[in-house]
Amino acid sequence: MFFLKKIFNFLIFILIKMNFLKLPEKSLRILMFHDIVDFKKFYHQLLTLKKEWTFINPNDFYKITSGKKKINKRYIMVTFDDGFKSNLIVAKKYFKKLKLKGIFFVPLKFILLKNKKDKKDFIQKNLKLEKMSSNMNNLNTDDIKKIMHLNNIIGAHTYSHVNLKKIKNKRKLYFEIIGSANKLEKILKTKNLNFSFNFGRLKDISPEILNLSKKRFKYIFTGIRGDNINSKKIFFRDNISPKDNIFDFYTYLGGFLDFIYKNERTIIKNNFKKED
């Protein structure tokens, strides 16, 4: 399946270069990264993206969603999920070098862990990562303050990164989404308006979860691919893998895979409106 996807993406790239297909003139895509293991490759990915897309910072993104800034180019904004230590290096070195800013979503429990075994267990059981690099570690509270002081945004990403749809206790669900965000606000001493769903696909999000999150947050991010040119409060993101290259970027960010996720986007938007 992996190789079929790569072949498909390569063919899309060739068709674009031959002018049989075209990238959209205007779009608003949001990238979703996680742990960065190979910084050289990550930096190369950003440089590659800059050739066809224009990076915007969160403040520009907020202006677009409020109607104060128009979408007149192919815009992309960078986000990170899960609170890995590598994100600090990204903010301090690579973002600074390229003059980029982004939103870093952190699960509160993970950044509060100090014991090595507890961290490993959390990564395996809560983040569902079977393969762990030797350098894989969590951000701590000092780290997220440093990232924030570099003019990035720290967003909420639940308390323990568990499957929210499996939580039957309403008080526990409230704490995962809202209570933990309030605690994060106290740590950072700044208002928290951004939230991203853990896992983030339709199968992981219920109408009840949507309703809780929209009452608390102004900007809500999923893990479903899609353009955000008409989005105001709930947003779609393109997951970027360390293995992705220029062929993959053209396919994802050109919207050539969006049809696969159309049903998920429609259901999410409809459920979101029903709770109004």
Topology as a string of helices (H) and strands (E): HEHEHEHEHHHEHEHEEEHH
How many strand elements? Answer: 9
Gap between N and C termini: 40 Å
Average pLDDT rating: 94
Q: What is the SS-derived class?
A: alpha/beta
Can you summarize the main beta sheet?
6 strands, parallel
Query: Which band does the percent of strand residues land in?
Result: 5-15%
Proportion in helices: 40-55%
User: Radius of gyration, rounded?
Assistant: 18 Å
Helical stretch tally = 11
Low-confidence stretches: none
Q: Globular, elongated, flat, extended or rod-shaped: what is the shape?
A: globular
Describe this structure in words.
This protein is α/β, with parallel strands linked by helices and 276 residues long. It is built from eleven helices and nine strands. The strands form two sheets. Strands 1, 2, 3, 4, 5 and 9 form a six-stranded parallel β-sheet that branches. Strand 3, helix 4 and strand 4 form a beta-alpha-beta unit. Helix 4 runs parallel beside helix 7 and helix 8 packs parallel to helix 9. The longest helix is centred in the middle third of the chain and has 19 residues. The N and C termini lie far apart (40 Å).
